[in-house]
Specification:
- The chain is of the alpha/beta class and 399 residues long.
- The longest helix is centred in the middle third of the chain and has 18 residues.
- Helices cover 44% and strands 12% of the residues.
- 52% of the residues are buried.
- It has one domain: Aldolase class I (TIM Barrel, Alpha-Beta Barrel).
- The protein binds iron/sulfur cluster.
Length: 399
């Protein structure tokens, strides 16, 4: 039964479509962005969320490794990149990458998330050996790596076509692709915030190619810089169309722009805007199963609230995050499993530890909620902690 709030809402007709399980169109989506009726938008998003995943809220034990911040581009919104001789420039060699992965495996992670700048001199072998060496640590470890622009860069470095590049990376251990680099697809916006980056079409082509090879990836939208509501609608429209075609996206992530140390004079999105955008993405992207709130960007408190506004995934333990902290994020860089579980429970949801493809991992123990902290304390061996993985399979930030 429709409540009084919705009966009186200017969005009542959209609510009726959503309730009937009908797809909303771009005009509806624009009206949602232009409305301040967050309560009604939240009710709609929550209904879609619960229809898709019930009361579950997912999280993953993962570690991020940003292998280098040295980049040949200079995107105006990016606080992460450095030139080789700049203060703060860094690059990890393979033994350093392996050491970081080994430390995290002791904590029970099931996934390593790897992105970096477009390095001017790393050879093709660096990337292939990186994946091989990490995969050798435990074949069940899922390597979620590289954005579309990194794939294009590797294609250039390795003098291979994009399909050949993706095939070689998959043979070396690539599990799935990350969704970064999409920013906002509109060319006028891209011209302001990342003029030298790949076009929307190139971003889509890389993901399309990967999906057609059976790979999976995530997709993103960066908000709170120079974009307008209609740019966001256009962005979501392109993602929904590609998902209709390939069904390869596992999740959508709204990324909040952080302005510190960038060349863009904008404040980033408010909490209200973040919640509204997450909720609208849940309503509009009816063909993408999961909506993720990246707590490292928006803070755990707002991420927790977002679980009632369409979100069903809080991402993971992360351990070391450089990209958004160099842009001013004040969040911690690591979240223990029991903290993630507690945050989810406080929001009235049921915590489900997942693997990279959203299969539940060890659900009973995840419910107990302290394996990450315990493993950290007693430094269990990789084989002991990794034994809890569900199969990572062979499918399938910045840059
Ligand atoms: S966003 Fe990526 S490609 Fe652009 S400057 Fe930063 S690291 Fe380089």
């Amino acid at each position: 039964m429709m409540n009084k709030l919705i009966e009186r809402s200017e969005l009542r007709d959209i609510y009726e479509k959503v309730e009937a399980g009908q797809r909303i169109d771009e005009a509806d989506c624009l009206r949602l962005f232009r409305s301040n009726d967050l309560a009604t938008i939240g009710v709609m998003a929550n209904a879609v969320r619960e229809r898709k995943v019930g009361n579950a809220a997912y999280y993953i034990l993962n570690r991020h490794i940003n292998y280098s911040n040295i980049c040949i581009l200079d995107c105006d919104f990016c606080a992460f990149y450095r030139r080789r001789r700049d203060a703060g420039a860094y690059e990890y060699n393979l033994p350093q990458m392996v050491e970081k992965a080994q430390e995290a495996l002791k904590l029970g992670i099931t996934e390593i998330h790897i992105v970096g700048g477009l390095h001017p001199s790393f050879k093709w072998e660096y990337y292939i050996d990186m994946l091989r060496e990490l995969k050798k640590l435990d074949p069940r470890l899922h390597l979620k790596a590289f954005t579309a622009i990194e794939i294009l860069h590797l294609s250039w470095v390795g003098k291979r076509s994009v399909p050949e590049t993706l095939k070689a990376l998959r043979e070396a251990g690539l599990g799935s692709m990350t969704g970064g680099g999409a920013e906002i697809f509109d060319p006028e916006v891209r011209n302001v915030i990342c003029h030298a980056k790949e076009s929307a079409e190139e971003w889509m082509d890389v993901h399309r190619t990967w999906h057609k090879m059976g790979g999976r990836s995530t997709c993103t939208m960066l908000i709170g810089h120079v974009e307008k509501d209609h740019h966001r609608v256009d962005h979501l429209k392109r993602l929904r169309a590609l998902q209709d075609e390939t069904k390869g996206f596992t999740a959508f992530v709204t990324l909040a722009f952080h302005p510190d140390n960038t060349k863009i004079a904008a404040a980033g999105p408010s909490g209200f805007d973040m919640l509204k955008t997450l909720a609208i993405s849940r309503i509009y992207l009816d063909n993408i199963d999961h909506i993720k709130a990246y707590w490292i960007l928006m803070g755990m408190k707002l991420a927790q609230v977002s679980l009632s506004y369409g979100v069903d995934d809080l991402d993971g333990t992360v351990i070391e995050e450089k990209i958004y902290h160099m842009a001013g994020a004040k969040t911690p860089q690591q979240m223990a499993q029991d903290e993630l579980v507690r945050a989810i429970r406080e929001a009235g949801r049921t915590p489900v530890q997942r693997d990279s493809l959203y299969n539940p991992v060890n659900p009973v123990e995840a419910d107990a909620g302290s394996a990450f902290a315990e493993a950290s304390a007693d430094q269990a061996s990789p084989s002991q902690t990794a034994a809890t993985y569900a199969g990572a399979g062979n499918e399938g930030g910045k840059a």
